[in-house]
Predict the structure.
Amino acid sequence: MLPVDPYIAHLDPSVNLCYPYSRMSKKPDIRSFWNPVPRLSEATQKGLLTGELYGPKERDALIQSVRRGSLVEVVELYLLANASGRTDSRKRDLLKTWDAIEKRGGAVIEQSTGRRSNNAKEAREMQAQAFEQLSRSGKGQKSARNGALSKGRMPWNPTPEVRRVCEAEWFSRKYENDDERLAAIQAKVGKKDAPRRSTLHKYLGSPHGGRKPSRK
């Protein structure tokens, strides 16, 4: 009798451990999601995952691909949430993604533990641990950010769209002063992503100089 891989067995409960491969049901439909964090790099996660790979920018496509019986595999559950943002926002995002997968008939499986979202007890354990990990990582991000700011080493690293808006409004001639420019930038990109006046001067230059900002 051929042996049965125990990992395949816990992925697919229809597999009977007493039967050889030739009599098993079809191979589990697995989609694997990787989301790099300092402790678990992209390469590390990809080396552990077993299904069709989807990255952070493909999460919506992953959800849309889920069918009844599909398994969405992550190394650890908290990685299913956005990698950045406030802790409470990331927790909501995690639950929203979880619910979207289950509404399409799929289930989430945590590769590191084998726990699944369609098991009530395991689902509670998964979420509790994920929330704890998100809280810890949120504190770590805040501490690192505050430490860098206190040393004056926090670089401005906006998305291309945010930078484009900042450049357009900062050098626009329709504003009379910096306060109006800053207000316009905040209105378009939000206070969270809007840089400070000093940051704009440092990275874009003076709005009165009439020169093109450096893109380095």
Summary: The first strand starts at residue 30 and ends at 33. The chain is about 45% helix and 5% strand. The radius of gyration is 23 Å.
